[in-house]
Design goal:
The structure is a homodimer of 208-residue chains. With 208 residues, the first copy, chain A, is an alpha+beta fold. Chain A has 8 helices and 4 strands; from the N terminus they run βαβαββαααααα.
Amino acid sequence: MLKLYYAPATCALASHIALQEAGAAYATELIDFKKNQQNSPEYLKINPKGRVPSLITDRGILTETPAMLAFIAQSFPKARLAPLDDAFAFAQVQSFNSYLCSTVHVAHAHKMRGPRWATEETSFADMKRMVPKTVAACFALIERDMLKGPWVMGEVYTICDPYLFTLAQWLEGDSVDLSALPKVAAHRKRMAERPAVREVLGQERAAA
Amino acid sequence: MLKLYYAPATCALASHIALQEAGAAYATELIDFKKNQQNSPEYLKINPKGRVPSLITDRGILTETPAMLAFIAQSFPKARLAPLDDAFAFAQVQSFNSYLCSTVHVAHAHKMRGPRWATEETSFADMKRMVPKTVAACFALIERDMLKGPWVMGEVYTICDPYLFTLAQWLEGDSVDLSALPKVAAHRKRMAERPAVREVLGQERAAA
């Protein structure tokens, strides 16, 4: 059985929702960031990067959200979570998810994770001040050019949707004005109404 | 015909090599960063993110290196650039490439691209000082846990290899000690001897 290591309010939510949407049999295990469990010797054996999510499969361990999402889509083809038979359409899905991991998540991370890239308190404060602007710019591009609606790729729900939903959870915390992002806001609302999303958010709240 | 927009010494090199390895018919167009051509109105119509690479296909435009690499592998299956019939092995390829785009490239980018995430000169200098350490840490993990050898995924060459080779070009510029990375150094040498890599580096040098 698949097992997802996650922490609440992290990008692990995307894979958690995808597993639920896929109808997969899976277990979860919470990694407690308050106890720095992600850097414990036990967890570093699972993911030497000291991050969540990690997915235990019968073939081995997978990390990195875009790879896990595509793996879930390919492993449960009946759930139709990605256009698996169309290389161009699949690449569009991957391009969107790659932008989220390499640019949008990274922009957000400069609020709390400054010590990854600098050492001085003044630098951390400077980075933090810029987050509302950089995250807003990323989401403005998503709003204008990427989110086709009603789902990210248009009429069909894909693995892009739980990932966008996950990062869009952080907008208020990053002081981004949601009223400038009506399509993103509507997408978030649409996602929150899906049974799989309600189930997963309920699970994560109960475990936190 | 496919067309790759690139700039020399950027991550576009990975897709350029993959196209050559695939035996694809493709054209290239150089985007001149010195003239800030990546932010010209013409180029922003191709890629509104103002970055390279972009790949023009007969179906539309693709951006983001991991997505483009998987697209090239899927579009030219005879070149066997990824394990297309094995979801887990394909996810391992994607996980590696996702780590390169979201963590390794981002660590490197803090040397010259500080203004993406901060505003003060002191912050830029602080970020720059940390780059040798953060990039070295990324590559130490690659050396220890990820690069199986002789190729990234072991005996079989995949789309991970040109991407790793591309980012490994930047190690000296980032003041990372290559003598601590014997497997990465041997991989870079092995890559540099491949006819496709020599051809592409020659093309990029001639155009620069």
